[in-house]
Write a structure and sequence with these properties.
alpha/beta; seven-stranded mixed β-sheet; three-stranded antiparallel β-sheet; binds guanosine-5'-diphosphate
Length: 479
């Protein structure tokens, strides 16, 4: 009886507060993914579609006509930059160029007013939900495992990784510098800088499109945010190490900076941002990894495991005790599905399902419900078929970005072109075994031209299954 009484009281309080306009719950939605996964495009498209009445039939509040209004409000955290929504819309819609990608953390408050689906709640007027969207680089999440590693372990792992087949060649320059460093010699700032620069260049090379590797900590080396050039980033793993670091030695300096990085950069970020999230979407550019080959796919799976581990309050997560809220839903979304004909979407979904299923198992993630989707936040192509030598091929048609290439063919940025993207393997397991990439041909297309109505109103941005993503992430909170 007591608990029934409590529940009824809470329901009444909530309803009364809502009627008086006093109480608007908020939901903190984290948006992450490695660099160029599609975070900026996703947030821009999500907000644009909600504000401008986009076509979202799989999003229940829209389908059932209960979404009354969505609008931006000043974001409540003064210490976090605002997501540059207006600039990004201008780029996408007016200039038809892709907006500037995420380089740091930013935030945006979107407020949604809706009619509740429940008759009881409707008696108290419209519901209102503040959605605080937090955009941050996935690279920063990959730093969490560092908290459990001392400098020696970090160095040993980085050294071992650099000897793998995909990495050894690009690691050569950093290794040449590192291998020549005597860990006992006096600390030398100029040498530290040369070493750190070479290590950063090596990580960047691993990340480049041809290799598309994912697990490359420390995260701020690739995405420094506001820490560019800071001494906390002027360190690197050492390939030679003494049993004890002599005070004043190179090893002692590197070790101290590594520890400073963890305590001054990694911990505050997790504490201030990650532990306050309610929901999370992790965007994954699976197509680029598939294109780069099986090592990139295996690496993506590793990164995904590490990322999901961050959201698991539990033994291996040093932030367990700090979680103010519990993330109860995580969506892993394969982006840029518009590069493929819809006949291949199911295969892309099977691939992402497989990666996530293994990552969830390895991360022993429990308590949160994890879902997957293959989507395009902005659909830059339409579908067609072409007949070649009597064979009908499914193609995608779009306007390639100026200078994009397939083989020797260079595209002009103003002309529509049909591209046959190739087939994804029907068995996702093949991607991890194959020696070569799947041989897809993806051409980056310009954002679509938006149609205008007779009244001159621009229609909302087209997408693929953005509404499905919204339903999973927000639907229940707008019921
Ligand atoms: P971020 O680094 O995660 O913020 O990545 P962005 O959102 O800036 O996306 C990186 C690039 O991926 C963009 O410049 C586009 O070229 C491409 N992209 C992202 N989302 C989509 C999409 O939905 N469709 C298509 N065709 N391309 C996309």
């Amino acid at each position: 009886l007591t608990s029934l009484g409590d529940e009824a009281r809470i329901a009444l309080d909530t309803a009364a507060g809502r009627a008086a306009g006093l109480f608007s719950p908020n939901l903190r939605l984290g948006v992450t993914g490695l660099s160029r996964a599609g975070k900026t495009v996703f947030i821009t498209a999500l907000v644009h579609n909600l504000i401008h009445g986009g076509r979202l039939p799989l999003f229940d509040p829209v389908r059932s006509g209960r979404l009354a209004r969505a609008y931006l409000e000043p974001q409540p955290d003064d210490s976090v930059p605002r997501f540059a929504y207006e600039d990004h819309v201008r780029a996408l819609v007016d200039e038809r160029i892709w907006p500037e990608s995420t380089r740091s953390i930013s935030q945006l408050r979107l407020t949604v007013e809706y009619e509740s689906a429940s008759g009881w709640n409707r008696m108290f007027g419209r519901g209102r939900l503040h959605i605080d969207i937090v955009d941050y680089p996935g690279e920063w999440l990959l730093d969490l495992p560092l908290l459990g590693k001392d400098f020696r372990t970090f160095s040993a792992e980085a050294t071992e990784q650099s000897e793998s087949a995909v990495r050894s060649e690009v690691a050569r320059q950093w290794r040449a510098i590192a291998d020549a460093i005597d860990p006992d010699a006096d600390a030398d700032e100029a040498q530290a800088e040369t070493l750190a620069r070479a290590f950063r260049a090596y990580l960047a090379e691993c990340r480049a499109a041809s290799r598309s590797l994912s697990t490359l900590p420390p995260g701020r080396f690739l995405m420094p945010g506001d820490m560019e050039g800071s001494p906390a980033l002027t360190f690197a793993p050492l390939t030679r190490m003494s049993d004890r670091a002599r005070s004043g030695s190179m090893q002692a300096l590197m070790q101290r900076r590594y520890e400073a990085y963890k305590s001054l950069v990694v911990k505050p970020f997790f504490r201030a941002h990650i532990t306050r999230l309610d929901r999370q979407i992790v965007l994954v550019d699976a197509l680029s990894a598939i294109n780069a080959g099986h090592e990139a796919v295996a690496d993506l799976e590793r990164a995904l495991t590490e990322i999901l581990t961050c959201f698991r309050p539990g033994r291996n997560n040093p932030f367990s005790a700090l979680f103010q809220r519990r993330i109860d839903r995580i969506l892993v979304a394969a982006t840029k599905a518009d590069h493929l004909h819809h006949e291949s979407h199911r295969r892309l979904e099977a691939i992402i399902d497989r990666l996530v299923e293994r990552a969830v198992r390895k991360a022993s993630l429990s308590g949160a419900s994890v879902n997957t989707v293959a989507m395009a936040a902005v659909r830059a192509t339409r579908e067609a078929t072409v007949t070649e030598d009597g064979e009908t091929l499914p193609v995608v048609v779009g306007t390639p970005i100026d200078g994009e290439k397939i083989g020797d063919e260079v595209f002009d940025g103003n002309k529509e072109t049909a591209v046959f993207p190739g087939d994804l393997p029907d068995d996702p397991g093949k991607l991890l075994e194959a020696r070569e990439g799947a041989g897809q041909r993806f051409v980056r297309m310009r954002p679509p031209r938006l149609e205008r109505t007779a009244e001159g109103m621009t229609l909302s941005l087209p997408h693929i299954r953005l509404d499905k993503a919204l339903q999973f992430l927000l639907g229940d909170r707008l019921a």
